[in-house]
Amino acid sequence: MRWSGWPSTLPVMKIERIEITHHQLALDPPFPASWDPRPRERFPATVVRVHDDAGHVGIGSGDDMAGFEAHASLFVGEDPLDLDRHAQVLANLDFLGARPWPLDVALWDLAGHITGEPIWRMVGGESRRMRPYASSAVLREPAEMVGVAERARDAGFGALKLRFGRPSLDDDLEAVRSVRRALGDTLELMVDCNQGWRMPWDVRPPWKVGQALRVARELAELGVRWMEEPLHRGDYGGMARLRREGGVAIAGGELTRERHEFEVLLERDCLDVFQPDVVCCLGFAALRELAARVRERGHIFTPHTWGNGIGLVANLHLTAGTGGAPWLEVPWDPPEWTAARRDFPLRAPVEPDADGWLALSDAPGLGIELDEERLQATRSERATYR
Ligand SMILES: [Mg+2]
After folding, report:
1. Near ion ligand 1, which residues have CB within 5 Å?
2. How far is the CA of 122 from the centre of ligand 1 (A)?
3. Deepest in the core among 225, 253, 289, 363, taking most CB within 10 A?
4. Residues 312 and 232 both lie in one domain
5. Residues 247-276 pLDDT 10s
6. Could you say which of 100, 121, 142 is where a domain stops?
């Protein structure tokens, strides 16, 4: 069944083929992301293009679509506008294997090209713009973190997210204290503890609730806007207790896979800020509904987004279009992490406008253009960090 929001007069097209390419941007010197014990030598991107038989193309990106090719025939020949059906098939594939959600993004982009609608309007049309927060990545000395914060403020960001993960928790806390002392209230601060997920080679145990509670109370004293992923993603009781006793808002759910898991997070009052990334979790239709549920409960829906510019734009459409979020995450930590690196698949990097907002246009779908030459120059057999 086609999505009911569209006129019945739209012609019926067919999905003709799905094209998946891998790319790697060399990073020299390697990029030391706080949440990855191995410095990253390459920035991978997998680009999904879905073609219909009328010449429209939809674009998506996210995980590497491992194992997807064997299932492409489930989509070829189908009506591209049957988005709910496609999302259900993708949910089945997600349950059985890797995260295939870049195809959902590409299908929504394609639907936008067929109907002429931008995705921010397809998901609700509440707004077409968001204020970005600078999401840092590198664990620096306190004085250097002050420099990052000043640069973020000077670049027009109203908020900055710091990372924890230094050898000593005191050093992590001192980084936040130093930024707060130097910049006062001129910048909102968030802290990501990154305890909710692990790279394959990272076998450290996540924090327990007692430790997280001590950190939460310190962050509350420092007026931190939210504490992100303080515990294992399944420690529902721990997160609920932190919310009750820690004095600081709790964020999480960036890679939570299933809708019923979000229901538990809602019902057990685990989170103030819900962060599922549309290129990794559930797709646009389900997250549009989840965003509404989250808002109804008085919480904030604002996705994780730490991939390339295609994912950033997809999450921007979702968050602006569903409304109600104060900030959207923007990976930014120069010189190691810049818009040029992050958005290498795009013709133009995503940059805030003169007022410091990320603004979307009336262009159909995602409204992006790929840099085909750059993609050709970065083609690779795989999408890995080495
Ligand atoms: Mg995070």
Report:
1. 192, 228
2. 26
3. 253
4. yes
5. 999 999 999 999 999 999 999 999 999 999
6. 121
Residues 157 and 268 in one domain: yes
Distance 48 CA to ligand 1 centre (A): 24
Asked if residue 12 has pLDDT above 90, the reply is no
Ligand 1 center from residue 232 Cα (angstroms): 12
**By residue range, what is the domain housing residue 267?**
124-366
Ligand 1 mean position to 162 CA, how many Å?
Answer: 10
* Residue 185 buriedness (CB in 10 A; 0-12 / 13-18 / 19+): exposed
Q: How far is the C-alpha of 48 from the C-alpha of 20, rounded, in Å?
A: 5
Reported as half-sphere exposure (CB side, CA atoms, 13 A), residue 375 has a value of 19
pLDDT of residue 3: 67
Q: Are residues 58 and 138 in the same domain?
A: no
Co-location of 251 and 129 in the same domain: yes
Task: Please tell me whether the peptide bond between 167 and the residue prior to it is cis, using omega within 30 degrees of 0.
Answer: no
Question: What's the gap in Å between 35 CA and the centre of ligand 1?
Answer: 9
Instruction: Indicate the pTM of the whole model.
Output: 0.97
| Residue pair 103/18 in contact by the 8 Å Cβ criterion | yes
Distance (angstroms) between ligand 1 centre and the Cα of 330 equals 11
Q: Give the pLDDT of residue 273.
A: 98
Q: If residue 290 lies in a helix (H) or strand (E), which one and from where to where?
A: helix 283-296
The total domain count for the chain is 2
Q: How far is the CA of 160 from the centre of ligand 1 (A)?
A: 13
Residue 60 domain flag: yes
Do both 30 and 152 map to the same domain?
A: no
Task: Identify the domain boundary among 121, 141, 161.
Answer: 121
- Average pLDDT estimate for 159-166: 97
